[in-house]
Amino acid sequence: MTARGPGVRRRPRAWLTAVLRHAALIAVAALLMLPFYWMLVSALKSRGQIFARPLQWWPDPPVWSNLVAVLDYPGFPYWLLLGNTLFYAGMVTLGTVLSCAAAGYSFACLRWRGRDTLFAATVATLLIPAIATFLPTYLIWARLGLTGTYWPLILPAYLGNAFFIFMLRQFFLGIPRELFDAARMDGAGELRIFLQIALPIVRPALIVVAVFTTLYTWHDFFGPLIYLQDPADFPLSVGLFAFRSQRTTEWALSMTAALYTTLPLVLLFALASGYFLRGARIAKF
Fold this sequence. Notes:
2 domains
């Protein structure tokens, strides 16, 4: 009984620490969810309810017609904008995952002259601000006659991203070399090792890259605004800005449009949360 005494006394302290920790996490999560909740309830309010004092934390009554009115609104072709965004985000995500995975595997698992020097130069590009290279990059695409299309936005993704190359390299370095040596002894080539051994092992990391790339591309405003000219080609980020600038007094419809823009990302994270959290937990960068 004497030996169990300290353990018994420590249990209430550990339980209290766990309760306080979870309470703090719940409070922070609620604080972060507050803007999304306000956007959701504002989408179901009338204009008078939005500006009512004191604040109405739930619409009374809810204006369900706002959810349908935005989809049929002439200045906000939601389905067209959504299709453009899915195409843009999907192509950029595919290119980023393929190029960064190949480059990360090469830097981590293959031996070739100048590998470390080139990797250091690749990581050093993270120090260059994007605005410093914007003008010469735009002039190059303009000389090629590709402005006004999605090519300037999609093609760079197939040339790799320095941060994701660095991250995936760290994952590939964590794979035991014995797996690769055994595959080579069985006659497997580097391409087969990369596709059938390395990629399945680092799948959580690939999901992390895909989710981050999709999030960034979905919200990208500057690139499409500069390179795209036809409103029929705009993604949701630019289309939402144009809709809001035209309907500055219709806050309920603006909130509804913002809600429709955000919901696909919420569904994406819900579907990929398991892989995302697993990849973030085992990351070694």
